[in-house]
What we know:
With 341 residues, the chain is of the alpha+beta class. It contains 9 helices and 19 strands.
Amino acid sequence: MGKLSDYTSLRVGGPAEQIVSASNEAEIISAVQAADAAGKRVLILGSGTNVLVSDAGFDGVVIHVSSTQVESEVDACSGATLTIGAGEIWDSFVETTIARGYAGLETLSGIPGTIGAAPIQNIGAYGHEVSEFITRVRTYDRQEKRVRTFINVGCKFTYRSSRFKVERDRYVILDVGFQLRIGEMTTPILYGELASELGISVGEKASVIATREATLKLRARKGMLLNPSDHDSWSAGSFFTNPIISAEAALKLPVEAPRWVQDDGQVKISAAWLMEHAGVHKGDAHSGARISSKHVLALTNSGNATAADIAALAKEAQEKVSAVFGISLIPEVNLVGLTLT
């Protein structure tokens, strides 16, 4: 029995009944099948950067995935086709693609987590989502007890979600396929903050290497890069997703509220702006839990927080935003053994 606080970036979480390490596909499937046959609950854990586990822990089998196999095929015309194991660290993968002369993932630099978690959340930043580059996701289907592969459209990607998140606990991701172009320049930079950091105008292109460096600098300033020596970065990244609301509801917000019109006419609103204008402040604390001094979306462990402390702080933020704007903030972090309601 191990403590899950040793496996998560928030450094909280009680004991697990059993923790199993799985370093390849066969070990992942074997561990899942054994747990299912025994009627045990299963928690798949990679780097533990997008999860908040209760202080009571997890009464089941935690499968710690560390599979990192890599397959690649490069064509001068079609670009690079890559297959990466679920346990590979996301940012290490991004760094490697850039070093090899591939373009596309540079704005997703610095996002914590593993390859296997990326499609579940459809991770994204600075105008791009990982779904733009995924060709297929290979999984073990716990319901049908077989390996299943989904091409991009079958993954049902939406903003910070996918079929793997909606059908929670059914699919265990084994590896992910990517298609990247070969090149030294980005597509047009459409995110104002990133363009400013690069010293260019919105709509201009930049070098892939410079864009990665700029992205990492922005994330570091926001406390979104994990640093073992900096408690202000002991977080799970952005705790809440940006709400997507109707155009009518968006018209009721102050005109200065940042907003992005979606293809279906709905409007994405900045969760950070809502929090800051509802009375949530950097540095706010609940016992050992603290809003990062760098960014309100990062809820951190100041050193002695419990999972209950962090959940309480998140609930306070939810309630303030709901009271002022009538909008419900939805956690991006996976909650295990607790809720905010």
